[in-house]
Amino acid sequence: MTKRIKDILNQENFSKEDLIELMKIDNKEDLDLLFKKAYEIKEKYVGRKVYYRGLIEISNKCIKNCKYCGIRRDNQKVERFSMSKEEIMEAVKWIYENNYASLALQSGERQDEEFVAFIEDLVKTVKEFSNGKLGITLSLGEQSKETYKRWFEAGAHRYLLRIESTNLDIYKHLHPMDNKHLFEVRKRCLEYLREVGYQVGTGVMIGLPNQTEEDLVNDILFYKEMDIDMIGMGPYILHKDTPLGKEWKDIVVSEEKRVELGLKMIAITRILLKDVNIAATTALQGLDPEGREKGLLAGANILMPTATALEHKGKYLLYDNKPGINDSVEKAKEDMDKKVKSIGDEIVYGEWGDSIHFKEKKNKI
Ligand code: SAM
Ligand code: SF4
After folding, report:
1. Nearest-CA neighbor of 158 among 95, 109, 229, 101?
2. Ligand 2 first shell, C-beta below 6 A
3. pLDDT in tens, 70-128
């Protein structure tokens, strides 16, 4: 087997069958070869550098009802919160003072004008406060093109909207069939984001029941086809108070397998797409205490340490056993610094760390 994997990894171009074969690797020797190759490509195209995005989870109020997510609308057990502008600016200040250079604002989805205007004003305030120095990523769900434009013009320049799964049967199973959770709409939103001018990020959940290696390869091919600049993907984790948390409790593949699949996804995405930004996500660490370091070693180059205020952290629970909910922002930073240094990558402070893929595209125009 090892010989065949070596041969595939030495190619310049990969067929879909090659990628599926890489996704099916299940022995340590071949896994090491895969991760080594991905790390070499990371070093060549984006360097052994890690950029931070200070993550602020600004609200857990959501109009959507995704069947996997702990803060879905119908979960009555959630204590809902929305951070005030002042609270958010406190976190922004901390991120700025710690020289992170970029922040990410994430929340449940809302499309009402009050929310849209709140974000628009917030983005402008962050820009003014930092003299334009803080880069802003938004992850606020599906919106109209007009809304994406308003937030872009206010100063946001990256947007993360995961496609969750490109297998339509799985997508339908992940969401209620109520016409408010449509794959076509989510895909169109990615197109709007591109047209407006954002660096566009997407990703999927990994290790879902009935998801095959071919499905995962199709997800990566979707990133390529959509010319995606940034990838944020991670293993699926059960949440006990969700429909799928109950339905899938006994059939989901082991946590170890989901971490392994998550790492293979990072590695194969790096090998195929080369110069995109790829995050080692919290969910990886949720299933493996060393998940994020392993993610960096498999080719990721972005980390998103949370800067959400301690009093709200415990209410933004997308899945069970979310790591770090009792840690202060200082502790989160300290832990993360140690992890990155332990594998020999350099943490780059004071630079946005924009997607090189996006920059190269712009240079070609
Ligand atoms: N509401 C926005 C949206 O859905 O795009 C942004 C926030 S949402 C909580 C961010 C991401 O969390 C989702 O795209 C989903 O992939 C991930 N997520 C939610 N529940 C999860 C779970 N149980 N396991 C793993 N990831 C989950
Ligand atoms: Fe809401 Fe996003 Fe969770 Fe779906 S994944 S329920 S849109 S927060």
Report:
1. 229
2. 62, 64, 66, 69, 71-72, 108-109, 141
3. 999 999 999 999 999 999 999 999 999 999 999 999 999 999 999 999 999 999 999 99
What would you report as the CA-atom Rg of the chain, rounded to the nearest whole angstrom?
19
Ligand 1 contacts CB of residue 108 (under 6 A): yes
165: tokens are 């799964």
- Which of 61, 82, 78 lies closest to 308 in space, CA to CA? 82
Task: Tell me the CA–centroid distance for residue 117 and ligand 1, in Å.
Answer: 23
Tell me, using a 6 A CB cutoff, whether residue 305 lines ligand 1: no
Give the pTM: 0.97
Helices (H), 24-174: 28-45, 85-97, 113-129, 145-154, 168-174
Q: Is 201 in the pocket of ligand 1 (CB under 6 A)?
A: no
- Largest Cα separation within the chain, whole Å, is 59
Give the C-alpha separation, 243 to 241, whole Å. Answer: 7
The alpha helices in the chain, defined as continuous H runs, are: 2-9, 16-23, 28-45, 85-97, 113-129, 145-154, 168-174, 183-196, 213-225, 243-247, 255-273, 282-287, 291-297, 310-313, 329-343, 356-364
* Ligand 1 centroid, distance to 155 Cα (angstroms): 24
